[in-house]
Design goal:
Elements lengths: L9 E6 L1 H9 L13 E3 L6 H13 L3 E7 H4 L3 H6 L6 E5 L12 H9 L3
Parallel strand pairs: 1-2, 1-3, 3-4
């Protein structure tokens, strides 16, 4: 059975401490059944497999509509991010306080440019 848009009512975030804290203060935090969180704080000690597992979990969950990921974190798992093609959850790369946005690295923007032949 297809997932309806009403079932997808959460945002998820994978990012540095400042980004995740800001998003949690804005009210996107959720700890559901089985203590499943919709956020992951990534720091210099976070191993790539942990980031990959969170990305996989968030993109498979049926209650998440949008996944926000800091662009510098997305760079650590770039093959997974570039391979992701689903409409839901929508994947958006965002800047962080210490790492400005670089449109040349954004996988979604690359697809748009390719689609329009730019």
């Amino acid at each position: 059975m297809a997932t309806t848009s009403q079932e997808r009512n959460l945002l998820a975030v994978i990012g540095d401490e400042d980004t995740v804290t800001g998003m949690l203060l804005a009210g996107i935090g959720n700890v559901g059944q089985n203590q499943k969180k919709n956020f992951l704080v990534v720091d210099s000690k976070t191993h790539v497999p942990v980031i990959e597992a969170a990305f996989e979990e968030f993109t498979q969950r049926k209650d998440i509509a949008i996944l926000l990921i800091n662009q510098h974190v997305a760079e650590k798992i770039r093959p997974m991010v570039d391979k992701y093609q689903e409409a839901f959850p929508a994947l958006l790369e965002i800047p962080s306080k210490d790492h400005p946005y670089d449109p040349n690295k954004d996988s979604i923007l690359k697809r748009v440019h390719k689609l329009f032949g730019e």
